[in-house]
Amino acid sequence: MNYDVVITCAVTGSGDSVGKHPAIPVTPKQIAESAIEAAKAGAAVVHLHVRDPETGAPSRDPDLFRQTVELVRESNTDVVINLTAGMGGDLTLGPPDDPMNYDKAATDMAPWQERVSYVDQLRPEICTLDCGSMNFGYGNYVMTNTPVMLAQLAEAMESYGVKPEIEVFDAGHVAMARHLIDQGLIKSPPLFQLCLGIPFGAQASPNMMKAMRDELPEDAMWSGFGISRMQMPMVAQAILLGGNVRVGLEDNIYLDKGVFATNAQLVERARTIVEAMGARVLTPEQARAKFGLTKQV
């Protein structure tokens, strides 16, 4: 069991939650304010995506990232900033009889430089590395991250002095990550995020979380989460298995059945679980020490 728990809050994500929830953070101001509220509730780390302020659609506009990060930093709220670098690997194929007639509006395949340009500019303490490809959901969308692309992204993150949070959605992604570590592209000790419950990746279950945990390198640090109604059960499971936890509106929009959540409320609920299990919630400074991070300003 982990008695010193880091809580990460995934503030807004890139899913289709806008329109399903009346107050998903969309603008840089809304995202920053929600991140700050989550930090005050006990999140040591905030994981940030950005969205088009007009439409709510996911975006990788460097200026939106800059505005959001600057607002968090200028608030003088101590929190570890974790930026997504997962955008730009989105492929939506055409129908089965014409797969190469891909959906141009829903496809965003970007050069590696574009995928991490704002990471280079803003130098967060952490950024994500989605360590593999997978069928993501029920349609024709494929999350696409080839070994060559991942090697280039990992090398860039290392050169920026930003620690990759290795996001793994299935057991094969752990194997891919271990390959990058063996190649010296990711420094030890690595930091993993076990992402469970996304169709058709690893299920959000105790057995699956344990199986993936058991495949991690011996010196790995890790967090884990489940989406939707499995968010809080996976908080407890991750703690029992020795990991840290992630909650937030990216992964789940409800506090209780039919009750919309805020990020701060989800962090507070996770904190209650942590403390009820006899563990303590780490501060941002303690999280930096645990993960080997250097505070950025």
Walkthrough of the structure:
The chain is an alpha/beta fold and 297 residues long. The protein is 35% helix and 21% strand. The protein has one domain (4-291): TIM Barrel (Alpha-Beta Barrel). It has 10 helices and 18 strands.
Number of domains: 1
CATH topology: TIM Barrel
The H/E string reads EEHEEEHEEEHHEEEHEHEHEHEEEHEH
Task: Report the total helices.
Answer: 10
Rounded mean pLDDT is 96
Strand line-up in the sheet with most strands: 2-3-6-9-12-13-14-15
User: Mind telling me the CATH superfamily name?
Assistant: Aldolase class I
Shape: globular
> What is the number of E strands?
18
Q: Give Rg in angstroms.
A: 18 Å
Provide the helix percentage.
25-40%
Low-confidence stretches: none
How many angstroms does the end-to-end distance come to?
A: 33 Å
What is the CATH class designation? Answer: Alpha Beta
Strand content is: 15-25%
Task: Jot down its keywords.
297 residues; TIM Barrel
Summarize the structure.
With 297 residues, this protein is an alpha/beta fold. It has ten helices and 18 strands. The strands form five sheets. An eight-stranded parallel beta barrel has the order 2-3-6-9-12-13-14-15, surrounded by seven helices.
SSE inventory with pairings:
Layout lengths: L3 E2 L1 E4 L17 H14 L3 E4 L1 E2 L6 E2 L2 H13 L5 E4 L5 E4 L15 E2 L2 H4 L1 H6 L3 E5 L3 E2 L5 E3 L3 H14 L2 E6 L2 H12 L8 E6 L9 H10 L5 E6 L4 H10 L3 E4 L6 E3 L2 E2 L2 H14 L3 E2 L2 H8 L6
Parallel strand pairs: 1-18, 2-3, 2-15, 3-6, 6-9, 9-12, 12-13, 13-14, 14-15
Antiparallel strand pairs: 4-5, 7-8, 7-11, 10-11, 16-17
